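Case study.
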Amino acid sequence: MKLYFNARFYSMDDQDNIYQGILVDKGIIKECYKTSPNLADVEKIDLQGAYVFPGFTDSHTHSFEGGLYSMGADLQEARSLSEVYDLIDESPVIGNYKFAFGLDENKLKEKRFPTSEELDRVVPNNPLLLRRIDGHSCVINTQALEIIKFPQALAKDFTGLLNKENNDVAAHTFHNTLTDEAIIEAYQAADKIAQKSGLTSVHTMIGDAQYSYNHFPLIQDNLARFTTNFVLYPQFFDVDKALEAGSKRIGGCILADGSFGSHTAALTRAYNDDPTCLGSLYQEDDFWTSFVWSAHKNNLQVGVHCIGDKAIAQVVNAYVKAQEKDPKDLKHQIIHNELMSDESLALMQKYNISAVMQPMFDHLWGGDNLFYAKVLGIDRALKTNRFKTILEAGVLLAGSSDWYITTLNILDQAQAAISHHNLAERLSVKEAIKIYTSNAAKLEGAGNKGIIAKNYLDNMTVLSQDPLINNSFLNNQIKAVIVSGDLINV
Ligand SMILES: [Zn+2]
Ligand SMILES: [Zn+2]
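After joint prediction, the assembly is written out as follows.
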C-alpha cells in the first residue's frame, strides 16, 4: 500500500471532490481522504505541495510515427531551406533510413518544398522521408525513390513531392521495412515522451490508413513493455481482422478527406484562396455506410478522419444510419471535426456521436490573419474547432494532439483549449481538463479511469502549479505521472 500525501488532489468527479491523501495498492485507488490520514504500515510518498489531477489522456495520436520521428529531424522551427538541410544533416540514421518531420513550407523564406535533387546533396547514401507538418505530403530523395513501389508511374516533372496515395505509399514503405525491435523502440520512445508530456493514457493509431494490418498484434502482445496505457486502434478498413485481433474499435485517420493545407479537405463552398476548388471526398457515401454498419453491428467503435464540412456530414450520416438501424452506445468518432456545420452538430448530439479534436490546431492555424482565414475566409475561420459550442450541445468532446502532427505536451494542449482565437469557443480551465480526463475515459468506454476515486486506476498527473487557481496552464510544470502503481518523476 502507498499513501500519496501533501498535495491537493482534484478528483474532477461530478461532485468536484478535493482530497488531501490517496491510498493505492497495485495500481488501484483504495481510499481517498479529505484530510491527511495517519496510517501505519503504508509507504508514504510526499508530493511536496503539488497539484494532482486524474491522469491525462491524449485521445488521438500516431505514437509510432511520433516515437520514430523523435529520433529523426524535427523541422518545425526551420525558417529557411538551409536550416532544413542542416537539421537533416545533423539527425541520426535510423535503421538504414533518415526521417524528418514537421516541415511547413509556408514558414520557410523560400515558401517551397526542397526538391529530391537538393535533398540528395544532404543525404546521398540513405533513403530519406521528409514529411509535411500535416502528414498529407512528403518529399523523398533519390535513394528513397529507388525502393518505393508506386502503384502508378510518377509525373514526368516529378521533383520529389508526394501527395495523397503516393504519400501514404512512401510512408508505408519506410515504416514497414523496420524490424519488430525497431518498431518496439519507436513505441518505447513514445512511451517516454508521453510521460514527460504529463500523459498516462494515449490512444494510438496503428497502420497506414491503407488496408495494411501492419504491427497491431506486435504492439498488442508487447503492451506490458510500456508504462503508458496505450489504447490501440487498428487503422484500416478490415472489420474481420479487427475482431480477430480482439480490438474494441477500428479506424483512426482513415480518410474521409485530406487537409486544408493541400486543398484536399472536402468543402460545401469553395476555398477562399482557390475559388475553383472544393476539395474532395475520398470515398463514396455507400462506402462509409457499409463500412460503418459492418463495424457497428459487431460492436466496434469507429473513428474517421474528417476535416471539411462536407466530409464531416458524409461520415456523420453513415453513423446516423447505423444508429437508426440499431442504436448502441459506441460513441463513434468524428476525428478532427475542424469545420463542422450546425446540421452535423445536431445529428452528433441526437445520435451519440463523439468529437475527437485538437486544440493545438487552433493555436497553430486560427486567428484573423492566419492559415484558416487564408484558406477558408474569415467567416468560416470563425466556425473552425468549435469546442465550446460542442460541449454546450452536449456532444462528447475528447482532446488530443494528433501527435506527431502537434506537440504531445498536455500543458500546451490545454492552454490552447482555453486561449482559442475565437473567444466564443474558449473552454474554461476545468472544461479543458475534462476533455483530457473524464471525457477521454467515456470515449474509451473505460469505467475505471478519468477521475480520482475509490476503485479507479491510480493514473494521476502531478503538476507544480494549480491551473484552476492560476486560470492558466502557463508557467506550470509536469512533475510526475503516477501510473500502474509507480510514481515516475519527469
Ligand atoms: Zn491522426
Ligand atoms: Zn487525421
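Observations recorded in class. The domain at 248-444 is CATH 3.20.20.140 (TIM Barrel). The two ends are 23 Å apart (CA to CA). We will return to this complex in the next lecture.
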